[in-house]
Amino acid sequence: LLICCLLAAKAHLQAQPNLDQSPFHLRADSLRAAGQIDSAFNWLDTEKTKLERQNRLQSADYVTVLFAIGKQYFNYGKLDQATPILRHALDLHRQIAPADLANQAVLLYALADCYEFSPERNKAIPLYENALELNLIVFGDNTRQAARGYYEMAIIHTLVGNYETATDNGLKAVRCLKNAGLSHEADYSGYHQVLGWIHHEEGDLHTALYYYHLALPMLLERLGAQDETAKCLSTIGEAYAKTGDIPKALEYQLAAANMFEQISGPKNRYLPNCLGYLGATYIYANQPDKALEYLRRAGNLVNPTAPPGPFLSIQFSKASPVFWMVYIWL
């Protein structure tokens, strides 16, 4: 009887509408994708006001619209506005629908994402842990949802420098998809790529390259010429550059730049950074003319109206390894 009750409860939880698929969230995303940013915020604010006037501040719809508003603020980097809204949505959801663990996990992930990109990054860890625990209860271990939870744990622990814990979670994410028979999906190759990134950040470049080279053929097979595949090529090039294998670095970085341009032309948002790394690698190759060519191209893509000279350097993040190189060579 207990098992039957648990199975019934689990089925009920999985049947709950996912906040990510709510009409509020989907319509706001479609407006944003169409470039109608103000319209997305105005529409959500109107819907929120309607619910408030109807005195529905304790309703599932109110949680849903708060979630949609918080996600939109997050998408535009407005963490100071997104964080309290998503925190309120999470607290309210726990109050009015404590049994809906699946959507509670969605809210936990959304709030954790805000902290991950903030100076208070460590606050994201218990939120990701809680979300993973809930998804394990609702969906089980060898599932897509569990794999996503382990993946998020791998990312946050890498960002705070806990590389052993990050690697353990990354391996669990791979294991979940493999055991679930989902190794054909793009996420499976993506999780290998994350394992490479963890070792890359740790400074173990040979192990990083091992995982990158596992991921690349899977990405080529599953996605073909897509941004994720080109990013993997670029990252392999960066790793080779750090090992001192400049010819290999140039081979992969040039392939990445060509793929980014093939995908969406010079407007590809990843192309400037890729070209910047190419310029940096040509510096190491002692080819200053080539370095200058690619660094100028990178700068012009970021801001075509920028004047020639050192002013182009401000178009790159100072956190970028190529920032100082751009400053020197332009």
Write structural notes for this entry.
Helices cover 75% and strands 0% of the residues. With 330 residues, the protein is mainly α. The longest helix is centred in the last third of the chain and has 19 residues, at 246-264.
Question: Any idea what the radius of gyration is?
Answer: 22 Å
Percent in strands: under 5%
Coarse structural class: mainly alpha
- Count of helical segments? 16
The largest sheet is: none
Q: Helical percent range?
A: over 70%
Q: Specify the overall morphology.
A: globular
Number of strand segments: 0
Report, as a whole number of angstroms, the end-to-end distance. 73 Å
Mean pLDDT: 85
Task: Provide the low-confidence segments as ranges.
Answer: 1-17, 305-330
SSE succession = HHHHHHHHHHHHHHHH
Topology:
Layout: H1 2-15, H2 23-33, H3 37-53, H4 60-75, H5 79-96, H6 101-116, H7 124-139, H8 144-159, H9 163-179, H10 186-202, H11 205-222, H12 227-243, H13 246-264, H14 271-284, H15 288-302, H16 323-329
Name the features:
single chain, mainly alpha, globular, 330 residues, 16 helices, 0% strand
Describe the structure in brief.
By secondary structure, the protein is an all-alpha fold.
